[in-house]
Amino acid sequence: MSLKTRDRLLIEAERLVRRLGYAGFSYADLAAEVGITKASIHHHFPSKEAMGLALVAAYDERYDAAMAKILEAHADAPARIDAYAALYLKGLEDDLGCLCAALAVEVAALPAAFRTALSAFFAKHVEWLAAVIAEGQAAGDLRPGVGSQALARQIIATLEGALLMERVFGRAGGFRDTLAALRASVAA
């Protein structure tokens, strides 16, 4: 099996988790999607836990790259927050939830290694947004008086909640409305 097959497995497994949840898919589902046998999947990922941890690591790397690109492409905090929110909107437009949020819903049933990986993923996002917010507050672009950590958590919670809710309603417009309300609530 080639690296290409492993990549295809990760892409399809991520799509399945983001649509159905970790407990909602099996290696049989994945084998059918990729067109290989379950035994072939075990060659790359001996357990579902190993695959799940690989999914979180790959997702984390993609978000690291996206957040670095946002910092390079946008000069001010409001534009950076909008670009960050656009990552969530893309998932909604593709009818996919956030991978780590989908896993977080099932956190009580996940192995400890998952809880650690999810905690690290979200902590990194809170820290990144808190730094963006602190810069925005110092520049006068964002409302002062609210701690950057608390505001970062509010933004993430709002985006995750809006993504979940609008997947149910099937409305990207509702997400955009929520984003506009969020923008107004943090603007200076």
From TrEMBL:
Molecular-function annotations in GO: DNA binding
Positions of the DNA-binding region: 26-45
Domain HTH tetR-type: 3-63
Record keyword Transcription regulation present: yes
Keyword match Lipid metabolism: no
Signal sequence residues: none
One Pfam family hit: TetR_N
Alphabetical list of Gene3D superfamilies matching this protein: Tetracycline Repressor, domain 2
Top-level taxon: Bacteria
Keywords for the protein's UniProt record, in alphabetical order: DNA-binding, Transcription, Transcription regulation
InterPro entries in the record: Homeodomain-like_sf, HTH_TetR, Tet_transcr_reg_TetR-rel_C_sf, TetR_C
Full protein name: TetR/AcrR family transcriptional regulator
